[in-house]
Amino acid sequence: MKLEGLRVLDLSLFLPGPHLTMMMADHGADVIKLEPPGEGDPGRGIGLGEHGHTVFFRNANRGKRSICLNLKTAEGREALLRVAAEVDVLIEAFRPGVAARLGFDYPTVAARNPGIIYCSIAAFGQTGPYRDRPAHDLACEAMAGVVSVNLGNDDQPAMPHVPAADMAASLMSLSGILMALYRRDRTGQGDHLDISMHDSILAWTPNVLGPVFVEKRPPVPKHERTWGGAAFYRIYRTADNRHVVLGGQEAKFVRNLLNELARPDLIELCDRGPGPHQQPVVEFLQDVFATRTQAEWVEWFDGRDICFAPVKNLREAFDDPQVAARDMRLVDEQGQEHIGIPIRFQNEPGQVEFALPTLGEHTREVLQEFGYSAAEIEAMQTAGACHAP
């Protein structure tokens, strides 16, 4: 696999860092997950679970080894530094300044391991006036302006339903780490990545910034092509109170559908671009889609060259034959479901390791790999510096 032989020390919790390192584990990296004593990663206790693990935890932490160190003790911090001295990548997601205060910031780790790729993930990054603010995904999306354009039918901001800032930061981190590893192969030098969730979600907005950058104003979502200002990029209700979408406003799709529906007179309104002038097209399509059920529309659109899709619920989405064909829903021997691997290689494809670590399961094993004797580990356990079951 592509990352076989790479050793990663993951100090992060919740979603961005764990998701990042799970993707690395799927492609062969040896990921050592450091968890705090007690409950460990909060993801172990969030949401529904089965067979001793939550769905959240197993879809962000499979294939890793768990060690449990108490970083409030000198022995625990020294153990962390000894491991960090011999790994390729370290990911931390503490609030800015915490790693330095505890003695394992980038300069300290790099002094022992100059080639390390050290990735810091924080809500607002390591610099700027907001660096010390506590924040999770929702606050980052709000500060980035994304919540302001995520409006409900009442034109009020609605809760975003996917953790876009978390996942954007995960993917930005993965990209940056792989760039740094590529560069290290040529120079031998490590690097420090400063990844901000806020930066990451801002970077996901290039297709909607016309009014912002040209006219220096916030967009009016209902007038913009991406958020409902175009009749062919909208959600429509069907006769059975379900929904479908038109998801492409290229001229050929507009003509194909409006000619089929005997309304070529409306094509000119779509040709003029998004905006309130398309309201007659929207109203016509609302009336049309209300005449049949979602299933009937799926059948009607089959074979027609029009960008259309039914709005599926998440259960239907993971049961879809396309998902099965791409192995994006996997089932283990216990019947538990897992998200598949989205990065697909023809050669050396990733491989899911369904095993999930219990808290601190590999503490003893990992510390021995990094030079600790059995007696030293027992002494640390007795002193409360580690959890080594």
Our measurement of the CA-to-CA distance between the termini, rounded to an integer number of angstroms, reads 31 Å
The CATH superfamily of the largest domain is identified as Crotonobetainyl-coa:carnitine coa-transferase, domain 1
CATH architecture annotation of the largest domain: 3-Layer(aba) Sandwich
Report mean pLDDT, rounded to a whole number. 96
Which stretches are poorly predicted, pLDDT < 50 over at least 5 residues? none
Number of strands: 14
Biggest beta sheet attributes:
7 strands, mixed
Number of helices: 17
Helix content: 25-40%
A few lines on this structure:
The chain has 2 domains: about 5-205 and about 325-385, 3-Layer(aba) Sandwich (Rossmann fold); about 235-305, no CATH class. The protein is built from 17 helices and 14 strands.
Describe this structure in words.
With 389 residues, this protein is of the alpha/beta class. It folds into 2 domains: 7-203 and 326-387, 3-Layer(aba) Sandwich (Rossmann fold); 233-306, no CATH class. It contains 17 helices and 14 strands. The chain has helices at residues 16-26, 55-61, 74-84, 98-102, 106-112, 137-143, 164-187, 197-202, 210-214, 251-260, 267-271, 279-289, 294-301, 314-318, 321-325, 363-369, 374-383, and strands at 7-10, 30-35, 49-50, 53-54, 65-69, 89-92, 117-122, 191-196, 233-237, 243-247, 308-310, 329-331, 337-339, 386-387. It has a 7-stranded mixed β-sheet with strand order 8-7-6-1-2-5-14, with helices on both faces. Strand 1, helix 1 (16-26) and strand 2 form a beta-alpha-beta unit. Helix 1 (16-26) packs across helix 7. The longest helix has 24 residues, at 164-187. The two termini are 31 Å apart.
